[in-house]
Amino acid sequence: MNAPAGYTETKLIDPFEVFVGPVFERREDGVRRFAFVVDERHVNMRGVLHGGMLMTFADLALGAAVWDATDNAPCVTLNMQTQFLKSARAGDLVEVAPQLTRRTRSLVFMRGDFTVAGGTIMTAASIWKLLNAG
Amino acid sequence: MSTVSVLPPDAEEISRGGFNRFVGPFYKLADPEPGGAWRYVFVAAARHMNAAGSVHGGMLMTFMDVAMSRTTRLAAGAKSLSTVSLSCDFVGPGRLGDLIEARVRVVRATRSFVFMSGEVVARGRPLMNAAGLWKIVP
Q1: A27, B8, B56, B88: which one has the fewest Cβ atoms less than 10 Å from its Cβ?
Q2: CA distance B25 to B14
Q3: Distance CA A53, CA A37 (A)
Q4: What's the pLDDT at A45?
Q5: A94 contacts A35 by C-beta, under 8 angstroms
Q6: Is the pLDDT of residue B4 over 70?
Q7: C-alpha torsion B41→B46→B51→B53, nearest 10
Q8: What is the pLDDT of residue B1?
Q9: What domain count does chain A have?
């Protein structure tokens, strides 16, 4: 798949992310934004983007933002909260600009608004544990 | 070293198409007694993993989304439905070959909404704890 205009393909290492990908990224103001194009694999039988794909993309994008904010510190997801606001369909470009809410010695709080054509379809907030922080 | 788990005899495949079938298969176990938990399973395969050798969090959230959607359909008789919110705590790692089970309880069902709690377990240990709110579309 060709990258959407302005984006380059993100290097993925987790087998599950490779399986559902590709995912794309672009730098703006020094931080990475992420995107994927909804295709026929990602929708349910009514043609609507599956919540599982959106949550997987959220975990991937917010996790990458945690690495960017911590010099690639090893981390795991402790919690993720998602709210589904609108549906999306095959062909839609889903984008997110992750936002760092707070960082402590052992935790990182991240959030993101996931948009299609500028309209928010999902919001996600996740809490990450930094593994080497004790 | 991992072993491939054997599916329980009452497992019924529920991933007929779309993303469910692409990432699945997912199975439903026998219907619960009144007030009991609805139970679902899948077997963790290589494509479900992360680079650290655990089942990917996105896969576990997908599993819970599938399990709560199916529970809304079965417990509330809803034909059309959508996820409003889902919160997941990641409690412990799932491993390659694990038989991974979701247990979903309906906390309350109204005409328009179903409130659920869920847990995911494997090898007798908790992997995930979840709370979900689903809307029934008339």
Answers
A1: A27
A2: 8
A3: 11
A4: 87
A5: yes
A6: no
A7: 60
A8: 43
A9: 1
Q: Which residue has the tokens 């960017």?
A: A68
Bond from prior residue into B25 cis (ω within 30 degrees of 0)? yes
pLDDT-derived band at B75 (thresholds 50, 70, 90) equals confident
pLDDT of residue B120: 98
CA–CA gap between residue A28 and residue B106 (Å, rounded): 44
User: Judging by DSSP bridges, how do beta strands B99-109 and B113-122 pair with one another?
Assistant: antiparallel
Smallest CA-to-CA distance from A61 within A92, A107, A98 is with: A98
Residues 65-84 of A with CB under 8 A from B: 76-84
A124 beta partners? A82, A112
User: Tens of pLDDT along A101-112?
Assistant: 999 999 999 999
ipTM reported for the complex, 2 dp:
0.95
Q: What CATH class does B12-137 carry?
A: alpha beta
Q: Residue A19: give its domain's CATH number.
A: 3.10.129.10
Tokens linked to A86: 């609108």
Who's near A109: CB < 8 A, 6+ residues apart? A100, A101, A102, A103, A125, A126, A127, A128
In chain A, residues 38-57 whose CB comes closer than 8 Å to chain B: 41-45, 50-53, 55-57
Low-confidence ranges of chain A (pLDDT < 50): none
* Nearest-neighbour CA in chain B from A111: distance (Å): 13
Domain that holds residue A66: 8-133
The beta-carbon neighbor of A14 closest among B17, B56, B82 is B56
Placement of tokens 């975990």 in the chain: A59
